[in-house]
Amino acid sequence: LGYCLGVKETFEYEKLVNQFWWPRLRKKYPVPDVSRRASWTRDEKNAYLLHNIPKVSPEIIKQYPSHGHINLVSSVQGKGWGRLLLKTVEEKLNIAGSSGIHLILNSTNLNALAFYKVMGYETIFENTTDIGVGKSF
After folding, report:
1. How many CB atoms lie under 10 A from the CB of residue 132?
2. 87-93 long-range contacts, CB within 8 A, separation 24+
3. Which end of the chain is more exposed for a tag (fewer CB within 10 A), N or C?
4. Is 101 helix (H, G, I), strand (E, B) or coil?
C-alpha cells in the first residue's frame, strides 16, 4: 500500500548511487526524445529524470543531512499511516545521529505539502516543478 524510507547521509547516498545504480539504469533507459516532451509517457518522464537527477543544494543538505521518500496509495491516505511511517523514519534517523531530514515533492501536490506542514516541516525551497521541505531534530 506504500512505503516510507530515509537515508541518513544524503552526500554518501548520492556518491554510491552515482557509482553503482544510476549508470546501469541509464544504459537500460535512454533519454527520451526531448522534442516529444509534451507527449511523454510516465515511463519516458522517469527515464528523463534518471539522466537529470535533481540536486539539492549543499547548504540544505548541511542543515538537513538526511532525506526521505514516502508514497501511499490513495485508499490509505488520511488514515494515519503516513504519519506513523514518517514518524518512525524520523525517530530512526534521529537515533542514528541525524540532525534533520528533507523531502522533495511535486509543486502541484498541495495535499502532501499540507501533510508535511502538520508534521512540523518547513518549506526550504520552491521552484516551478518541486517544493523542498525540511525538519530539524
Report:
1. 21
2. 87/119, 88/4, 89/4, 89/5, 89/6, 90/6, 90/135, 90/137, 92/6, 93/6, 93/8, 93/66, 93/68, 93/137
3. N
4. strand
119 dihedral zone (left: phi>0; alpha: psi -120 to 50; beta): alpha
Q: Which three cell numbers stand for residue 29?
A: 533507459
φ/ψ of 74, rounded to 5, equals -60, -30
Strand order in the sheet with 2-7: 2-7, 66-72, 100-106, 130-136, 122-126
Lookup result for grid cell 522517469: 46
Does position 99 have pLDDT exceeding 90, yes or no? yes
pLDDT of amino acid 28? 96
pTM: 0.87
